[in-house]
Amino acid sequence: MEEISPIDGSRRGLKTTLYLLSLFVYCTQSLYADHPGKAAIASAHYLATEAGHEVLAQGGNAFDAAVAVSSVLAVVEQTSSGIGGGALWLLHRASDNHEVMIDGREMAPAAAHKDMYLNADGSVNRDLAVNGPLAAAIPGEVAGLEHLAVNYGKLPLAQSLKPAIRIAREGFPVYTKLFRMLEYKEKVIRRWPAATKAFLPAGKVPEMGQIISLPELADVLEKIAGEGRDGFYTGAVAQKLVAGVRAAGGIWSMEDLAGYVVKERKPVRAHYAGYELVTAPPPSSGGIAIAEMLNILEPYHVEKLGKVQRTHLVVEAMRRAFRDRALYLGDPDFYPVPQSMLIAPDYAAGLRAGIMFDKATPSDMLPGRDNLPDGTDTSHFSIIDSAGNMVAATLTVNTIFGSSFMVPGTGFVLNNEMDDFSAKPGEPNAYGLIGFTANEIQPKKRPLSSMSPTLILGADKVAVLGTPGGSRIISMVLLGVLDFMAGNGPQSWVKLPRYHHQFLPDRISAEPDAFTAEEVLALQAMGHSVEVRNRCWGNMHGVMWDRKTGEVTAASDARSDAGRAIVR
User: Active-site positions?
Assistant: First the structure.
């Protein structure tokens, strides 16, 4: 008889177990549908959702629809995204289960440097960092749209851009979010004549329902439709952009635009409760932070705990992940991000060991700063097509209307993503987020982002979700993922009352209906500072395919009046 050592025996036992497990998964999956048979799109504006379905009806796939949705949002929702900004598109291709993130994140101009926003006394000039052309990084959205169409779509780029061109030329009605954001940013917009002309016709904020048309933007989109990325990054449009930016005090060059490169990046993967999460890698901080938080939380089985105890543990996980965001995360092409360490279960176990079950951990035991303004910027959409291709995309110009600066003759605002860098070590940006060397300003570097487009993959169901919301994106997606794990669908994720902790400032920020008065008192008794805000935040959009029943569902956040989710 062959003698088997205890180690050999354990290895053989493990191999047998893994084989049986894989056989079970294969057999289980074979019981379920292999494609949805229907398509679902949920986005921040009904015209964008309709445009996505229009392109699908013309024979396009989810990736063509993503081009259509992105470009229409670039017309109707310049409060939050646009071709003057950037995006992350997380893709799942059903034919070979290939997942990839298309990184169309903005890039610092070559003339950028780490002290470019510092006053003579060393303080940060917040106005220069946020408003006007010096705040704008080189946009990446247009290059990303071409990359999507050429490498993953079935239709020509020009065909998928048609709805956006039509809407820009014919116009669209002012809706509640746009009206409110124009009121909020009116003074800044008035600094720039082209933006004033586009968004304040007749010299004032337009009325609800009034039609806004952007013919100059339609011209730029037609140029892109005809020439691809070259219609934006070289030639007449590029020359106009560089001349306009430099005339107003910016530092762009023709070489900056021509040198912009789309990156394909390997997604972050995490496992929780039998599901695999596929989410955004650096230069997004979202995927690593979410993976780290889920690793910390999994042994607690938080879904079985009472609300106060569950909230306490979720907040402690948030606190530690946001601390690591500040210390370790940046553009991986410029800084050695320790991704493997941060998403390792053993690392999470070490962090978990410092969590007290009945008492908050003060953030100054782990160092920082203060101030968290509300975030209503950025946009997100979720798509699944009838073949099972999926897109989770988060698009941005950073804060509301980005820099508010518009180059004359273009019809779109430029981003203010330079503020997503750390202008000074430990100094908070517009979202109160601090950063250090990993995210300092460097030429051609991409700023750290909180965008967290996420796929959840399981044998029984799959989901696509994400949201805008600045630093709160990460916590909102975490809460949505945990709600999915609790057995709920998109309608529940997008309605879920939200709370947030980002390490510094050391407080729980909560929507008005997130906690009862008794729950606030209980959290305070544990040592948490709780600030209940007088407004809601975010604009989550999600879709889900239940492979057991074949049902496809979608939902858009009711916090925004313009969002629309459609299943066809």
Answer: 378
